[in-house]
Design brief:
Elements: E1 14-22, H1 30-45, E2 49-55, E3 60-67, H2 70-79, H3 81-84, E4 88-95
Antiparallel strand pairs: 1-3, 1-4, 2-3
Length: about 110
Amino acid sequence: MSTAGDPSSENAVSYFLIFLKMVPGKNLSPEVLGLHAAHLSELDRSGRLVLAGPIPERAGGLIALRVANLADAKAVADEDPLVWGGYQTYEIGTWLISNRQNGYRPHLQQEHQK
């Protein structure tokens, strides 16, 4: 697995969402789901995983990441066995967090590397 986007670095302040979508006609085997779970476990151990899970109403799932930039988020998505195995496609979005510290107004003008 890639070590890109190590959250222990000073620059790891960005959050990204990976929206996974099932490829029609592709069935997930227990083996593939096990590989996906191992991928998520590695992301969790490295501090990059914020949360993840399926979205039954959308026939896919969501992975929230804390990584340095969009390229790191894309690398994580491309490393997922569901993606490289052709079972799911994905889209990535930058997640600007609204919280007490920013008055629930994230900086919409914030620049992110593409």
